[in-house]
UniProtKB/TrEMBL annotation:
Signal peptide: none
SUPFAM superfamilies: OsmC-like
Domain of life: Bacteria
Name of the protein this chain belongs to: OsmC family protein
Taxonomic source organism: Cellulophaga algicola (strain DSM 14237 / IC166 / ACAM 630)
InterPro entries found in the cross-reference section: KH_dom-like_a/b, OsmC/Ohr_fam, OsmC/Ohrsf
Database matches in Pfam families: OsmC
Length: 142
């Protein structure tokens, strides 16, 4: 049996929309003032990058917890190239995983990243359908 997500997105005027989420939270989507919007919301394509980082980040965080790893800080940088022609889309995406700490177990953290990238993250798999995805892991030992 498959799961269905249903999102409702409502126009609030000008170029602003509000979109709900199964979590019960909602967010605003808008474009920059120079493009005719009010700049009061998330940009749709950039939001895709947040979804990618968030999806994989949740996997990695769960594995950090499960493996009882000592990580002081963890962040993901997502850098994407947008095509020049309309419809513009991401054709190359670099995802950088940055781990900071004094006792980083690099092999286990790399395993957590690999499991997310190769097995668990559905958004990563969706991105692979239309973009070249490059994964880099950085360990910042204190």
């Amino acid at each position: 049996m498959s799961t269905t997500n249903h999102i409702s997105t409502k126009w609030l005027g000008n170029m602003t929309f509000e979109s709900n989420n199964p979590s019960g939270n909602s967010l605003k989507i808008d474009i920059a003032k120079e493009d005719g919007g009010d700049g009061n919301g998330y940009r749709p394509k950039a939001l895709m990058l947040s979804s990618l980082a968030g999806c994989s980040g949740l996997d990695v965080a769960a594995l950090i917890k499960k493996m009882k790893l000592d990580v002081e800080e963890f962040h993901i940088e997502t850098i994407a190239n947008l095509t020049d022609e309309h419809p513009k889309f991401y054709d190359k995406v670099v995802v950088e995983y940055h781990f900071h700490g004094a006792n980083l177990k690099e092999d286990k953290l790399q395993r957590a990243v690999d499991l997310s990238v190769e097995k668990y993250c559905g958004v990563m798999e969706m991105f692979r359908q239309f973009a070249e995805v490059e994964i880099n892991t950085f360990f910042h030992n204190k």
